[in-house]
Amino acid sequence: MKAPDIPANETDRLNSLRESGLLDIDSSAAFDRLTRLAKRFFQVPLAMVNVVEEHELIARSIDGEASSTYPRNISFCGHTILNAAPLVISDTRQDDRFVDNPLVTGQPGIRFYAGMPLRLRDGASVGSLCLIDYSPREFTAADLSVLSDLGALVEDEFAAVSAATTDELTGLFNRRGFNQFVNFALSVARRRAEPLTLGWIDLDKFKLINDTWGHDEGDKALKAMADLMRASFREADLLVRFGGDEFAVLFADTDEKGAWIAMHYLSEQVALYNDRRLHPWALQFSWGVSEFDHAQNDLQQWQKEADEKMYAMKREHGASR
User: Fold this and answer.
1) pLDDT tens string for the chain (321 positions)?
2) What sign results for the dihedral spanned by CA atoms 95, 99, 101, 102?
3) Which of 115, 255, 260, 301 has the greatest number of CB atoms lying within 10 Å of its CB?
C-alpha cells in the first residue's frame, strides 16, 4: 500500500482548511443534496464530500454506508488532493497503490473509486467529491465531465461556508467571525488602553449526550448553552461557537478578574437551568479565562493560555476533552 504524499504547501493548506469553517459545520443540506445527486446519477452505493485534515479524512456529507472519519494514511482522497485532475481507479485490485489497502482487502471492499479534488477560493486543495463502488467499473469522458460539474457546485458551497461568519445552529459567531473581529477588538482596546479578556468554554461529557440520547438532543444542548451565554453576558461581549462543543467569549473592557466573575455567573445560570430538568441530560462545562498581554501582542499564545486553563478545569472535573 502506498500512503498518500504530503503536499509541499501542507502548512498553508491546513491553515486554509481550518480558517474555512468546513471543520466546524455539523451538517450541510447543500452538500447532502449534491451527494444524493451524485449517487443517483452515477448509480453507485456511496458518494461522499470529504475534507483532508492533518491526520484524518473527515466526511462533510455521506450518501450511503460509511464512517465519518478515516485515517489519512489509508484514504483514497489523500491521493486525490495531490493533483488538479480527478483520480479514477477502475479496479483497485489492479492498482499497486491500493491493492493491499485495508479499505480494499477488508471492509468496505472498495473496487472502484473516482475522486474530484475540491479547492477553496485561495486555491488550497482541501478535499474531494468521491464516488465509490464495490465492483470494478469503467468511467467515461462524459462521466468525468459530470463529476467535474458537480465538483464545481461543491466548491461553490465551500465558498459559501467560508464566507459565513455566523454559526447556523446557535446563531453565535463562528470561528471565521471571531477571526475577523478579534484584530479589530484588539486595536480598539490598545487605542483606549482597555483590557480585553478571552473566555474559553468546552462542554463536559457532550459526546455522552449524543451517544445516549441522539444528535437532536446534542443540538438542543448546544443551543441551550448558547442561549444561556446570551442571557448571562453583555451585548458588548462577542460570543462564539468555535465548532463542536467549544465556545468562546471575548470580554470587552474587562480584565481577567472581571471575566472570572462573569464566568461564575454563567455557571450559576447553567445550574439553575439544570434544576428545571427540561431534558434527560444536564449541561456541564469547563472554562478558562486569559487577559490579553498588549506588550507581548501574541494572539496565538493568548488563545493557548485560555485553552490550557479550560483544560486544567476539565481534568479537575474528570471529563474527557
Assistant:
1) 899 999 999 999 999 999 898 998 878 889 999 999 999 999 999 999 999 999 999 999 999 999 999 999 999 999 999 999 999 999 999 999 999 999 999 999 999 999 999 999 999 999 999 999 999 999 999 999 999 999 999 999 999 988 888 888 999 998 888 988 888 888 888 888 999 999 999 999 999 999 999 999 999 999 999 999 999 999 889 999 988 899 999 999 999 999 999 999 999 999 999 999 999 999 999 999 999 998 888 998 999 999 999 999 999 887 654
2) positive
3) 115
Q: By three-state DSSP, how is residue 145 classified?
A: helix
Cell of 23: 471543520
- Say whether 190 sits in a helix, a strand or coil: helix
Question: 175-317 architecture in CATH?
Answer: 2-Layer Sandwich (3.30)
Q: Is the pTM of this model over 0.90?
A: no
Question: How buried is 74 (Cβ within 10 angstroms: 0-12 exposed, 13-18 middle, 19+ buried)?
Answer: middle
DSSP per-residue letters across 237-276: SEEEEEETTEEEEEEET--HHHHHHHHHHHHHHHHHHHHT
> What's the one-letter identity of residue 63?
D
Q: Where are the domains of the chain?
A: 10-163, 175-317
Give the CATH fold of the 10-163 domain: Beta-Lactamase (3.30.450)
d(C-alpha 313, C-alpha 301), whole Å: 19
